[in-house]
Amino acid sequence: MKGVSIPEVLVFVLLIGSYLRGLWIPLMDNDSAHHALIAMRMVETGNYHELIFRDADYLDKPHFLFWTVALFFKMFGVSAWAYKLLSLLFSAAGIYATYRLGKRVFNVQAGQLAAVILTSSYAFFLANNDVRMDAILTSAIIFTTWQLVEWIHTHRWGNMFMAALGFSVGFATKGAIGLVMPALAGLLYMYQINNWSVWSRMRWAGMVLAVALLLLPVFYSLYLQFDLHPEKVIRDTTGNSGVLFLLFGQSVGRYSGTAWGTLAQNEPLFFVHTFLWAFLPWSLVVLLALADAVRSLWKSGRTLWKRDAIKPASFFLVVTFAVIFVLISGSQFKLPHYLNILFPFFAILTGSFFATHATSRMKLIRVLQYFTLGALLIATCFLNAYVFPVDGIIGRAVVVVLMIAIAVCVYQRREQILLVTVLVTSFCYALLNFNFYPKALALQGGSHLAAYVKEQNISVDDVFYVQNYGQSNSLDFTLGKVIPAKTIDQLDGSAYVVTDEHGRDALLDAGRQFVEVKTVQDFRVSVLSKDWMIPKNRRAFQDKLYLLFLQH
Question: Engineered SS bond to 503: which of 163, 216, 264, 499, CB 3.0-4.6 Å?
Fold first, then answer.
């Protein structure tokens, strides 16, 4: 057996260590802590069929994340790492599914490279820091696609059931996209290899039945919470059906902008420039791989439209990517993480490209990758030497030693561009998770203020919000309790009050007397801005959170 080299050991230690370190980074406002609070309430109340956020009915995402996180909270206690562990485990499953699908469609080497490329892509890494639902959804989609492809070839009931399970998890995590994307990929794959046996023999009916049965708990819970209570007001409307919302309203509402408003609606190229940073350090090579695949499809000419002809292996990947990319680009409500579901497909396509063109296109690949790595290192140095410098002699010494070791490895293995890319990227991720994000989240006021409340042994039962001012999900989660909000008139006794500057001014205007116990800077780290990153300008772009002691 070939021995493991020092660069490979460094990659493993830095990359895996960075992912594991992310488990203990505090939850980010707003979505991560928001989702964690819903799951925490389930554990506290024992009510698992209702989705409630701060005493208000929540009709947006379905139950899977909240149920599974609640289970982890029951098993391990309420903590950031217990919340994030689920996404990390799903990410590992998604990486394995990417490897297996790449192996099935192309070869073992393409599958292995695809797994490495996916693991080291920035937004996939970020999805395990700013944990929402994207890691679970992405992994569910690629897992389902893999199982569908296996089922098409083997006709095994086990593959059919696992595909049904994947469909159910994807749909129960984020709605229709969890069904649509893998189903599209599966149909295109059948067309690609001209194998329709699972369709023509009605075997798909068994899968549909299995998916329906697996999703019954979700639909029944929504029916109990919303369909039986049409009087509930959701987004200023009554008569809301939870079942119909999950089937149609959620996707249509986001796509049309009618339910959540519009975001980046006039940016048809939003996901183009998002992709360039989100899939670092592989963005430029993916474009090269995609161009090569499209050229191959173009050369196939009319055979693409002949049902009985065997198409190029990249056909279903490219068409699935194109259809989904166009669909999400047409949405009136766009967020960067919507692109994550395409990353395993990008990774497989790029892995195949590396495996096929490792020699003939290597000069161009090296130029693209060294350019990308240079830009990545400049950005990493900016974040960890200027924005939040590494503290202490020991910390700086460790960074210098790692930089020297990596520089030596890069020089010795400069021809092995894939290894060099993953090594340098792993070093950058280590600095992000061991230095940048912990320091940035120290300026997230909710987590900071909650730590102070714990240090001072202030009873959480004596802490309140001023209603509509400065409510912080990260503060509630860190304290392990949803802090109630009261109007100024309802705050009729001595109490600790958390509020922002506007709430503080409102208390002054109402003539209430208080003592400022603690003031902290507050910034939403999940939405970084270039102005905030300049240390001398930072305070101007931060809000404040106050812990006040309100006197009777």
Answer: 499
